[in-house]
Amino acid sequence: MTVTPKPTGGVGMNPVANALSLILLIAIVGATYILYYSASPLVFTALVAIIVGGVLVGFGVHFVPVGGAPAAMGQAPGIATGVAMLAAGAGLAGLFGGAYAVQSNLGFWTSIVAGGIGGALMMAITCLFVTLIYTYGMGIPSASGKVKVDPITGDSQVEYKSQGTEGHGLPFSSFVGGVTGGFLGGLGGTLIYYELLMVYEDRLPVLLSASSSAIVPVAVSLAGIFAIGLFLVNAVLAAYNITGTTEGFHDPKFARFPRAIVASLAASAVCGIVAILVAAL
Amino acid sequence: MTVKVEVKEGGTPHNTIMWTGLIASLVCLYLGAGLNAMFNAYSFSFFGGLAVVAALIWGSNAIKTLCSYGIGTGVPSTGYTTFGAGVVAFVIASRVSWYYAPIVLVIVAAILGGILGYLANDVIMMKIPVLVRSTVEFVMVGALMLMGFALMATGSYQILGIATTQKSLLGLGATNFAGSFIGISIIAVAFILGMIAVQHPFNATLGPSWQQDRMLMLAAECGFLSLIPVAIISIAFVSLPAVIVSLVVSVVGWLYTYSQFLCLSKRDAAAWLDAKPIREPEGH
Q1: pTM listed for this prediction
Q2: Are A148 and A156 in contact (CB under 8 A)?
Q3: What is the rounded distance in angstroms from the CA atom of residue B241 to the CA atom of residue B44?
Q4: Cβ–Cβ below 8 Å for B119 and A230
Q5: pLDDT by residue (tens digit) across A158-210?
Q6: CB of B105 within 8 A of CB of B173?
Q7: How far apart are the first and last CA of chain A?
Q8: Probe site for chain B from A4, A220, A277 (most B CB atoms < 10 A)
Q9: Contact A214/B84, CB-based, under 8 Å?
């Protein structure tokens, strides 16, 4: 018989591991700067932008109110599914909006904000219908279990919370948090997509010895699938950080986000440089 | 603090499954690509599909190993890690020649998985003893499965094979990028097919009276089921005999594994068992 402790998502930070991750990040960014900046600044700026995008994704996931199975039974607040599911939904919806804007040549800022709005819209629709189902389908009011008053509206929560639960429904702050998280996730995902697309459109004609217009489908597809891949890696790391359920930015678990940012920095740098090297090597 | 308590008995140890899955997958990839190159044909592309099934069986047992600790984010999140990093390892490995590609793939996947596992275990502080090792295995499984899908669909796992299609029109050869495995985003279909297949077996069979052989049979069934659409997709890329071989292999494999899975499900169904304490066989 084996008895192993179950992970509880401990508090605090591990200084050695954080230092190692930051050294890895600096080593990758530094090596890219030395090897590529003089020849082609695009590769270096793309790597930095991909890291920023990955961090935005990892940070944004912390805003999303995730209830998991307890929420489906009305015993915890949030949307009744897992962190990774919600993040993937918001990120992919954002990526569709952003990729469409990139394809229409609307420029850098319009494209990434379009991606953010796509993600925010998806989360807003999800939160709206979740609230409708909770309120009119399951007959439960929205009440937070982590705070006494809603930090945005100032409404008292305690009276509406059933005994023996951690709250239920989708409080207003969680709704706002979900939309914010969707916006940040979509923004980050589209930033990764945009930068990878720029690198591939620049480098793939050399690699495949073809004209730059001919390789556009390959560049778009590769940038898209890598953006999804990097997005999922960062979302899962953030999901591990949350371990289960969260209510959004007013949840005590939100204070853990520095760990996820360090992890996202290193993970995006490692996966990002490999994705760039596919074309730049 | 909650604890994970389990009694281990019987079953195949995870190490055996891991080495078998890794070696079988690599051998199938080399057989497929090598025989295709030797006979200048596409007919051996179905070995890619067998590589997918071998990697998938290993992957589902690796997911069981990690998820028996209760990671709190749901079993599907492991499938996301598997393919999110796996797709990067697969495409970079496709850059080298066919006899190095699978080895490069395994090495790159191990490095990516090791770093991601370390970040999750020590920076995020998950503190799960098997997390680093499991993440290494996940990324390898994802990358091997994508390579197998690519080999089955296009007859090649190299960048020129998956980013281009050769069309001959009136005797003139023309290179087309838009209709290729990557260009038309078949890679995204393979990504989703594999991601669902790898996380489903444990997600569907977990709980009391979990049996390792039933989960692994379901994994093989999911693998062959995923191969059927890939075999149909391969109509666009490979010769007709190769498509027929692939389709027959995947349909026959699926029918066999599905009937076996049904038998095992009936064996484990509640009505067929005497009341006994719940045991969990080895597999972790």
Answers
A1: 0.90
A2: yes
A3: 10
A4: no
A5: 888 888 888 898 999 999 999 999 999 999 999 999 999 999 999 888 888 88
A6: no
A7: 51
A8: A4
A9: no
Judged on CB neighbours under 10 Å (0-12, 13-18, 19+), B207 is: exposed
Two tokens, residue B184: 């038309």
The tokens of A80 are what? 């009744």
The residue in chain B having the minimum alpha-carbon distance to the alpha carbon of residue A264 is B119
* DSSP code per residue over B158-176: SHHHHH-EEEEETTEEEEE
Interface contact flag, B122 A17, Cβ < 8 Å: yes
Is A185 in CB contact (< 8 Å) with chain B? no
d(CA A51, CA A276): 12
Best residue in B7, B78, B88 for a mutation probing chain A (most A CBs within 10 Å): B88
CA distance B188 to B275: 46
**DSSP state string for B44-105:** TTHHHHHHHHHHHHHHHHHHHHHHTT--SS-THHHHHHHHHHHHHHHHHHTTS-TTTHHHHH
Give this complex's ipTM: 0.90
Residue A181 tokens, joined? 């998280």
Residues 6+ apart with CB under 8 A from A174: A65, A77, A78, A127, A144, A247, A248
- Let me know how long chain A is: 281
User: SS3 for A248?
Assistant: coil
Tokens of B252: 């026959």
Q: Number of residue pairs across A and B with CB atoms under 8 Å?
A: 203
**CB atoms A84 and B80 under 8 Å:** yes
